[in-house]
Write a structure and sequence with these properties.
about 210 residues; alpha/beta; Rossmann fold; five-stranded parallel sheet; SGNH_hydro; SGNH_hydro_sf; Lipase_GDSL_AS
Amino acid sequence: MAALGLFTFASGLPGPGAASAAEARTVRIVAFGDSLTAGYGLPASAAFPVQLEAALKAKGLDVSVENAGVSGETASQGLARLDWSIREGTDAVIVELGANDMLRGLNPATTRKALTEIVQRLKGRGITVLLAGMKAAPNLGRPYQETFDAIFPELAAAEGVLLYPFFLDGVAGERALVQPDGLHPTAEGVRRIVSGILPKAEELVAQVQAKGK
């Protein structure tokens, strides 16, 4: 975050102790997703939102990260609860949905439509968005895989929002980093996710602050 130079003049302009409203208050982030966000199979302290908040604070950022993950949820189910899940005063949302759509083999067009509406509704409320991408399993076939994987970069580009291309980057397929079900990350797996997404999360905070909210 760029420092804001403040100088004291005889005319009574704010002195060094007067920070802008954007810098003076906590940036409120909501992690909105499925079991990967909720922390399935983990203690609450090891869930993604908790670990991300700690990592951002370690970077000197004044943030809070709320856990709005619901296990088993599809993108369409997330859309259905969006308005009441994202409270007034939220500055930014990390959208992490689509894994369950893929695992159930749902039509990618349905997933795309729901995610598009989620992003557009959030933007309409003045909320900054980071879209966390997902990738389809190879056993679903190349046509499905290519169509599904394209949802996230294309949506982020069309709506002008931040993108982290693959939420499970560095974790998927790594047996030491996933629980016995082979799907959900361990606490160490979540740490790997946080390490990967952290630069984008910092950019998310910077965008909020740049808006002067």
